[in-house]
Amino acid sequence: MSTHINAPEGAIAPYVLFPGDPYRARWIAETFLDDAKLYNEVRGMLGYTGTYKGVRVSVQGSGMGQPSMAIYAHELMNDYDVQAIIRVGTAGGMAPEVKVRDVVIASTASTDSAMNRARFGDVTYAPAADFELLRLTVEAAEAQELPYRVGGLFSADQFYNPNPITQTLANYGVLGVEMETAGLYTLAAQFGRKALSVCTISDHLLTGEETSAQERQETFDSMIVMALEAVVALDKSADKKRAQ
């Protein structure tokens, strides 16, 4: 049991889906997992464990922004020995080729976060996804014939930024903006675990198009299926490695 997650030992699976919205966590558990059980509701940050195609999977809300996300990711990896975390969230589209409802699998994450500056000082650390998890998610998307894009995201410290640099980042190939991925990738590197962000474009900074709060909470099925299928493949890969 940790400070912010009220789960007994063994209640959390080695693989965790990690939405920001705790109500999306509940929707994922009720919609996609078999025999899902609630293991956490401290501060309303819901967490569930169930199975998907016979593989134990947990889903845990993280809250918004890197500071909140980092609390839960740290405790999941440090206190509950979670081996892989897949963020399933939303992002704002920045590049003209990205459309609302597109799914972006984040290979890298740029950031303006003070958290990484505090950790690395003058060094510009480059947070990146785990390659095996990225590869398995791409393969899952293609097997399910689900459209996707692979590219970089920008993890911003501020949602309402009076001096946005999103256009500059888009000019350098960054596809979308959200608030958690860079911190997640950094923590996964610290603990030697696997992490990936799979984000649906919920609105677009260039066109002004957006989805409703209800849609963001209870739809966007494609990214959930990609993530869960990747977990199944990762579990099979782990079994093969253990048998060698």
Automatic annotation (TrEMBL):
InterPro entries: DeoD-type, Nucleoside_phosphorylase_CS, Nucleoside_phosphorylase_d, Nucleoside_phosphorylase_sf. It catalyses: uridine + phosphate = alpha-D-ribose 1-phosphate + uracil. It comes from the Bacteria. GO terms for molecular function: purine-nucleoside phosphorylase activity. The keyword Glycosyltransferase applies. Its EC number is 2.4.2.3. Keywords: Glycosyltransferase, Transferase. Residues 15-222 form the Nucleoside phosphorylase domain. Belongs to the PNP/UDP phosphorylase family. PANTHER family: FI09636P-RELATED, URIDINE PHOSPHORYLASE. This is Uridine phosphorylase. The gene is deoD.
